[in-house]
């Protein structure tokens, strides 16, 4: 089956609309998934894309802080209303609220910075196998059938290759509180740095809760398992192409009271730190 990045590109395609209560507003459509509510990365990337449309070209997105208030339906538009909080000489701040059917579903704050020449330091990238030596999700799931397996294999716009192994059907690699995922867009993306930054914001939500599921011994296919993103923070440290391999190193930072905190870092293949992600999620195991 041919693979494509169309789902991502369609997710971040915005249409400006009129609104009275804020500065500007945009419509975007969450993409189809084989479960009742839309993928959280749609909301993260769409809110970022809306904010980016309201700032001058001399500054780039450097952080996002968001809260998921309720799930949204796929293939139904979400209206993102952007409020200009501040435009300074070096930084700009925007507040974004996402509404579907008149109900607030997601809100975030985005910060932008005029880039400066400065020293770059970061943690050391973990030593892991080369991505081309690892099986793709489609190869891992080639004997599986059903909508979920098809979506994990071909429907997410990105090739994802796990170390030590995925957690789709069972816990491949043991119940350890860490993992890494090589990610790359299925096809080449436009030569636009903004699209690549949005792609990283989009893809980060797919696997950030997996170290929590891994250590709990809960593969995605566990009967009755329910997860939900609660809040999300992301910092961009440098630019990188999302259609070239990036290593997403992740760890479980804590689990309590039905919630888990995942921390992740994106690195280029050369070891440069690209972005840091923190996300708390609800974890509800099925009844046994």
From TrEMBL:
Protein name: Thioesterase family protein
Coiled coil: none
Domain (Acyl-CoA thioesterase-like N-terminal HotDog): residue spans on this chain: 32-113
Entry keyword Hydrolase: yes
Family per similarity comment: Belongs to the C/M/P thioester hydrolase family.
Species of provenance: Leucobacter denitrificans
A biological process from GO: acyl-CoA metabolic process
Gene3D superfamilies referenced in this protein's UniProt entry, alphabetically: Acyl-CoA thioesterase, double hotdog domain (2.40.160.210)
CDD domains: Thioesterase_II_repeat1, Thioesterase_II_repeat2
Pfam families: 4HBT_3, Acyl_CoA_thio
Acyl-CoA thioesterase 2 C-terminal domain: residues covered: 162-282
Keyword Membrane: no
Keywords: Hydrolase
MF annotations from Gene Ontology: fatty acyl-CoA hydrolase activity
